[in-house]
Amino acid sequence: MDDELSTTQVARQHQVHPTTVLRWIAAGDLDAHWVGKRLRVKKSDSDAIRQPVSATAEPAPAP
């Protein structure tokens, strides 16, 4: 079973404000579920939401 993260932990992982994580959840961009009175996010879902851009990444080709 996947580890579960709090919205604060997800925010730290992605270096964003916790409110941003709540917005992702509200927009349907990030799946979350309630455990009691707390929202939890599967670690695999958090990892998939946004991958950091590598400094060595090639820019996209122009159309």
UniProtKB/TrEMBL annotation:
Q: Where is the Helix-turn-helix domain?
A: 5-45
Gene Ontology MF annotations: DNA binding
Matching entries from InterPro entries are given as:
HTH_17 (IPR041657), SinI_DNA-bd (IPR010093)
Where is the region Disordered? 43-63
- Name the NCBIfam families for this protein: excise (TIGR01764)
Q: What is this protein called?
A: Helix-turn-helix domain-containing protein
Q: Which organism is it from?
A: Kineosporia babensis
